[in-house]
Write a structure and sequence with these properties.
By secondary structure, this protein is mainly alpha-helical. The protein is built from 6 helices and 2 strands. The chain has a single domain, classed as Histone, subunit A (Orthogonal Bundle). Strands 1-2 form a two-stranded parallel sheet. Helix 2 crosses helix 5. It is globular, with a radius of gyration of 15 Å.
Length: 161
């Protein structure tokens, strides 16, 4: 049986600190984003976070645990490298406080450990860095991603995460 991704509403862009996100995307990949991009970004983060947590839940259930821990998530080498890149960027931008409020906590069968809850900003930050850099891999000259650029990135992440 394949689980269906629930529809998760994006949080309002006011909470996200628009100026900080503009600076983040410029620093991470030289991109200029607009308000519509921030809505796409929020959708992307919530979809991918849900996908990671769904796999983490399956890993925890497989060994009869009733909470999801950070090590249950399928963090690849590339995503781990994005964690390190995010931490370097975050020292300059201090984005982690905003990212913690960005991600909706999707409904799952298992609870999240306190450590897992504490890791949300870093995981979201890593996904953000990976997303920004994916735009540049697809088109090294892109400065202002179009809707089509976003869809390409979504397709790549849906394929790999």
């Amino acid at each position: 049986m394949i689980a269906r991704r629930p529809e998760i509403a994006s949080p309002p862009t006011q909470v996200m600190g628009v100026a900080i996100f503009h600076r983040f995307f410029r620093r991470a990949a030289g991109l200029n984003i607009d308000k519509q991009d921030l809505n796409r970004y929020g959708d992307f983060i919530n979809r991918k976070l849900y996908d990671l947590l769904l796999r983490g839940e399956a890993a925890a259930k497989a060994i009869d645990r009733d909470v999801i821990e950070p090590f249950d998530l399928p963090i690849t080498k590339g995503l781990q490298e994005s964690v390190h890149a995010f931490r370097e960027l975050d020292e300059e931008i201090e984005l982690d406080r905003i990212l913690d409020h960005l991600s909706n906590r999707p409904p799952l069968d298992l609870a999240l450990s306190e450590e897992m809850e504490a890791h949300f900003p870093v995981i979201v930050g890593a996904l953000s860095v990976a997303l920004a850099r994916t735009f540049k891999i697809i088109d090294p000259d892109v400065k202002e991603p179009s809707g089509e650029d976003w869809e390409r990135c979504f397709g790549i992440f849906d394929l790999l995460l």
